[in-house]
TrEMBL record, chains A, B:
PROSITE patterns: ACT, ASPARTOKINASE. This is Aspartokinase. It catalyses: L-aspartate + ATP = 4-phospho-L-aspartate + ADP. It is an enzyme of class 2 (transferase).
Amino acid sequence: MGRLVMKFGGTSVANIDRIRNVAQHVKREVDAGHEVAVVVSAMSGKTNELVAWCTEVSPMHDAREYDAIVASGELVTAGLLAIALQTIGIQARSWQGWQIPIKTSDAHASARIDEIDGDKLIKRFKERKEVAVIAGFQGIHEPTGRVTTLGRGGSDTSAVAIAAAVKADRCDIYTDVDGVYTTDPRVVPKAQRMNKVAFEEMLELASQGAKVLQVRSVELGMTHNMPIFVRSSFDKPEDIDPHGTPPGTLICSEEEIMESHVVTGIAFSKDEAQISVRQIEDKPGVAASIFVPLAEANINVDMIVQNVSEDGKTTDLTFTVPATDYARAKETITAAKAKIGYARIDSATDVAKVSVIGSGMRSHAGVAAQAFAALSERQINIRAITTSEIKFSVLIDTAYTELAVRTLHTLYGLDKA
Amino acid sequence: MGRLVMKFGGTSVANIDRIRNVAQHVKREVDAGHEVAVVVSAMSGKTNELVAWCTEVSPMHDAREYDAIVASGELVTAGLLAIALQTIGIQARSWQGWQIPIKTSDAHASARIDEIDGDKLIKRFKERKEVAVIAGFQGIHEPTGRVTTLGRGGSDTSAVAIAAAVKADRCDIYTDVDGVYTTDPRVVPKAQRMNKVAFEEMLELASQGAKVLQVRSVELGMTHNMPIFVRSSFDKPEDIDPHGTPPGTLICSEEEIMESHVVTGIAFSKDEAQISVRQIEDKPGVAASIFVPLAEANINVDMIVQNVSEDGKTTDLTFTVPATDYARAKETITAAKAKIGYARIDSATDVAKVSVIGSGMRSHAGVAAQAFAALSERQINIRAITTSEIKFSVLIDTAYTELAVRTLHTLYGLDKA
């Protein structure tokens, strides 16, 4: 007997049949004796429709109204799932964000969860054996009493936050894939599903382009040490043994992973652009003169590479931005030329970032060196390199992305047997 | 300078262009110096879609979940209209039922409004010159904290209740017709729009089959003496003089109508079925033995006719029900035969009810008699008659409905010049 949060995304609740399927998944866990809270997204396509309407009325719309509008999709699925559960004999009721309440900041359209009081839900688990069906993605800013949303993919974050609030044993994220893979299986058919991955590794995988989970949900899982299990909502409920180990990937603390690989996975991102600022003065404040204007223009800078100056006078600085921000970034740097002081800008848009992630890197030397050698053997030119404790990334020409990913996947022994 | 509630139904907010048109209507009134609250329905078709999903999951669904689901449609239009208003320079914010709050009973799916505190809205009218855009059709049952809805067409009731709560000067109901007509213009092309109609008359017109307004909104208008102005949302906002008298029908107290006609309008309803219970004993309790089982079966009985017994021993009793309830009603009466004690049941489904309404009937004798003579001249057989203070109804064969309505419309001088 445990306590479980189950989260189902848009494709898992896309129509009434799929919602009935979700109800069967929930019933299985209830029948196994678990106390269950379910977090649901809007039916797939609904949120996009609502967002499109907001934009059609005005591209510069009030984020408070945007939130009131787009949060409505989840209310529908929460209610429908509650009815579907009742129909198969499971006590259930729906909860809107403000009813629990899920208290958030007032950063409308990308609010942060501040506090969830789980007592009301726990009381009803105990007294009524009632499943809580919770509208994901939303909350309330209590001082103003207005509805907030957590940003796209926010239902993952709702689920993990609720799991922490009700002191659940685990948070199951049901999705349209059956777990987290060592890399994108569409690029590397030999990619394998990981059984376990550490929070830190998953954070790097998620932010480096693996699109399974919202990054903030993993951060939250790490903070509260809440194990997150990524599994498929397409598995037939009747085929699953609730006491067995279903297929999926458990995201948990490093200590719970007995045997860790040096490299856990390979992530990549093709929508990158590179800007190199040549011959800037090597003096304090020059980096700020570049990145402050970019931040003010709301441009997200990803990789930053600056080498040690050769002559002690000038150096080059390279950074990457999302391809969609490329033109604006270049304009911003050009406009600030006098202030920054540089010789010229070199830039490229056909670049991709490939990242190798593994907490084993902490204790193994030479992991990156192996990669540089292997890529060089394939004649793949490395434009720039950055590293962190459990990851390194290389910037290469987009055309070589798949080749590089496959090469590294084999190199680190990640290919399926 | 006055205070105005403006209500727009589903066809008036069916898409973004229509919502922009609504914003122009609101701007006109704001520019004229009025304080404005707007009540909106869901985009046309949306509520039906949500109801269909509930029914698809389970025909016998939890009304609390049904309410949580179907109330979501209005949230979308309220938010979109608030954005549309802001875009044209009008201060505006959306309000969900629970935010005001609109406190209702817990009769989910057909809740009654208990109380609305208008102070918050009035304060913002004064301090911010802000238009309140309110999601119609919904409220909250405060003891349980759950969302309620007021039943189909409930946004009319929301609008009038809010008008009373904020002490508005008038409640304007924008709809897809330009007012209330003496009868259905599709049946009688000579039907005319009424400039003014008394609350009592409108109540009879509405409950007798004129579908312009929800009956409860008229009751509420009568209780609070809140003038309701029915007008078209298809009139071009720029063509309307906010200080003039736009086309439409004002529903108000009888005292404000200087020159009243004896007959105000003709209503009719074709979806009727008639059941006559023959030779029941003429003794106390026999009517109850018929109507209690029908009430328990949730069948809405409309006309009831019982004549004075001729022999003091037995009599006949006729009643009508909606055609959709005909089979169930007949079964119910058949099942209760032993208890009721009757000789036989006669019934008919092809019957229509035609009603003549006018507060002038109070002071004019012979109004009904004229009708009976005119119908007889046309060879239209009257199956049953009921009367009230300001109305009488006849039950006839459906085939003669249009002929009867046109005949009575001419008879009482309602035809357009």
